[in-house]
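Exercise 7. Given the encoded structure of a 306-residue chain, write a plausible sequence.
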């Protein structure tokens, strides 16, 4: 594993704000929301206010190098030798978010009401980069956010089911880009073959205490056969399924062509085939993000405004 200092410097140049072994990065949709414009698909699907959302990761290390990943680092980043305690980590993350947002105060196009709201973050999106389940106190970090009355979305690649089994975020996302082992090895370029661990994580979703989502990143010409996902998703039975187009951004441009991006119409055709076969309903779509949301008719969960 290579030293992480050079890669950390690259992340800083890309707008990542380092908080020890963690990182924060305000996203495009936060910027748009602060200007009074539209918000991201998580707002349209789940009621999350983009300007009150902290996008972060507790650890930069990842055991995958997915072909569709846009993150600016290709080489593995080493795990830290020491870990921040969860309450300390969350406090530092919140303070860094506030510090970054303070720079928006003089903008002439600022939505002042949303700017004031942003000073009290209501949501923690544990999804920036890396695989967050490598942070050994992830369950305690989520509990610390809950004590601050913050909702949490945890995004994982599913390779550490023993961690996913014990955490209790508001919403647990499992990212899935393959319907079988061969596709997984090709798409994820994992440091080892963890397909069986991914299957174990999928099996957890139907009975998990958290609201659960399987998010499928669709790459044209690679994984857009919905039939391949039928049996996996039937057994998993998540509350929601998100089908989202690969976007030709960042480092992924060196692995995939622009033609690998499905149109929104192709995403919708894939989604409707899933819904028809699995007993889900189409409950939302955001054409700009090329994403569709399916809801499990057998165990619908309430979507709340935050």
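Solution.
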């Amino acid at each position: 594993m290579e030293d992480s200092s050079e890669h950390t410097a690259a992340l800083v140049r890309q707008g990542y704000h380092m908080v020890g072994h963690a990182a924060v990065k305000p996203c495009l949709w936060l910027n748009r929301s602060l200007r009074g414009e539209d918000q991201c698909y998580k707002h349209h699907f789940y009621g999350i206010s983009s300007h009150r959302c902290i996008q972060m990761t507790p650890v930069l290390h990842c055991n995958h190098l997915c072909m569709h990943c846009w993150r600016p680092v290709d080489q593995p980043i080493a795990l830290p030798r020491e870990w921040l305690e969860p309450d300390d980590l969350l406090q530092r993350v919140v303070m860094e978010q506030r510090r970054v947002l303070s720079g928006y105060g003089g903008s002439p196009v600022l939505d002042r009401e949303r700017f004031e709201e942003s000073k009290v973050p209501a949501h923690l999106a544990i999804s920036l980069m890396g695989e967050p389940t490598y942070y050994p106190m992830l369950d305690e970090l989520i509990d610390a956010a809950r004590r601050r009355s913050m909702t949490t979305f945890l995004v994982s690649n599913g390779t550490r089911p023993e961690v996913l089994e014990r955490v209790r975020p508001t919403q647990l996302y499992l990212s899935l880009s393959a319907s079988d082992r061969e596709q997984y090895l090709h798409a994820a370029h994992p440091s080892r073959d963890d397909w069986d661990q991914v299957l174990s994580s999928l099996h957890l979703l139907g009975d998990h205490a958290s609201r659960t989502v399987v998010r499928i990143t669709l790459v044209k010409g690679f994984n857009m056969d919905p039939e391949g996902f039928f049996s996996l998703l039937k057994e998993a039975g998540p509350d929601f399924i998100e089908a989202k187009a690969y976007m030709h951004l960042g480092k992924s441009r060196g692995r995939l062509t622009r033609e690998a991006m499905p149109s929104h119409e192709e995403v919708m055709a894939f989604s409707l085939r899933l819904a028809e076969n699995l007993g889900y309903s189409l409950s939302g779509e955001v054409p700009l993000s090329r994403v569709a949301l399916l809801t499990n008719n057998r165990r619908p969960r309430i979507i709340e405004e935050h």
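Remark. Strands lie at 17-19, 22-24, 53-57, 123-126, 151-156, 171-176, 211-218, 240-245, 280-286, 291-296. Students should compare their own answers with the one above.
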